User: What shape does this take?
Amino acid sequence: MDTRTAAAIKRCIEEHSTFLITSHINPDGDAISSALILLHLLLHLGKSCRVVIDDLIPKKFDYLDGVEEIKAFESLREDEDFDCVISVDASSPDRLGRVRSCLQGERAVINIDHHASNSLYGGCNYIDAGASSTAELAYAVLSLWPVPVTPEIATIVYSGVICDTGRFLFPNTTAEALDLCSRMVEKGAAPSEIAGYLYHRNSRNTIHALAAALSTLEFFFDGSVACIHLHNMMDDDIDTEGFVDHLLSIEGTEVQIFMIERDANEYRISMRSKSNIDVNEVARHFGGGGHMRAAGCVVKGSRDTIKERLLQVLGEQICTV
Ligand code: AMP
Ligand code: MN
Ligand code: MN
Assistant: This one.
């Protein structure tokens, strides 16, 4: 973190006393970990602090210390006030769902993120697109004070980094990320225990849903694009995060797509790229975003029309690289 940003964040946190921490809808491990790192920091500093995310927190994150402090949007009272909002891992206010309304008014806003497309919506913006995860940045913020790094905090930081680097497989697996995780293990994070919590507790229904999704596998553009889809499954115990990553294992594919029906005629699209094809550009075309090699969007329409439009935009990207 450059010294100016460090000084600005330090001053902003020290000058304010009541905080709201938030992150993006459909929260992933990085969003949740980053929020919890800052919660631990603010509690250590004796601040009053609430964490609100406008979505369900997947059950697999139940081992993270403080996760029960993350509340739903409905828990916010009309008269509740904060003098500072800290938003983590969210590239724009839209990503916060209904919590974006809390950014209005006189409140100070600190925006901490690693999306290159971040719209710099904070009064204080700490954006580093080269960071593996927002958890890495949140830990740098925590380290501005002499906070003891407990095994619980180390577990949260380690979890944020492994979730966003796809267990140290994606190109954002930097030396800094590995070094940070190594230090977190020294402080008490237990890699195989964390892997057990995150990856070895799938419900049977999740695996049935994965089987159903994989059975829809299709290829386009001579095998360079692989696509799977899933109908809306109302079961709360189905966790589809990571389904798209299974397609990364297919030789010869460059772009991987997972389409899941969210509502009648509405699909959430997850995209990954193994080459120089920028899926963030494709997602942005549909009002979404993300990173060059991992991006998403929500699109209305029938599955066939959406797929056709996606493939058309992807085709243009494939031609230009
Ligand atoms: P996912 O495919 O859901 O794992 O998301 C991959 C990346 O794309 C993450 O960095 C997300 O924050 C980002 N992303 C996913 N959906 C959206 C969306 N609707 N709008 C903006 N960014 C998104
Ligand atoms: Mn995220
Ligand atoms: Mn992230």
Notes: The chain has nine helices and twelve strands. The pocket of manganese (II) ion (ligand 2) is lined by residues 24, 28, 30-31, 89 (CB under 6 Å). The mean pLDDT is 96.
